[in-house]
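Morning run. Coffee first, then this:
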Amino acid sequence: MTDFVDEVNKRSKPAFESYLRSRDIDFWPSSANYIFCYFDEPVVLEKALRSKNILVRPKKDDAGTMGLRVTIGTVEQTDYLIATLNELLPKEDATRPAKKQRL
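And here it is:
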């Protein structure tokens, strides 16, 4: 069990947070094994992820903004999540206005 916790906290979560930052996706850092993320179309993305056998939970934050609660797993699972997000999310667009950071 300790090996799994170490894998999540020391490798998987930092890798996913780094990915989110690199894609300019707002998120709330967490000390738990999940991260609340603000994707542009969270409900649409949740359905697309589900079709790829990735389960996330759509939720609203305290302000009523919809996001996705993403549970962090093994490095292999996180790599699959990142690869799938890269397939599903639009490519970077230099003409897109910068997003307001929540952090």
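The helical segments are 2-22, 42-51, 75-88. Good start to the day.
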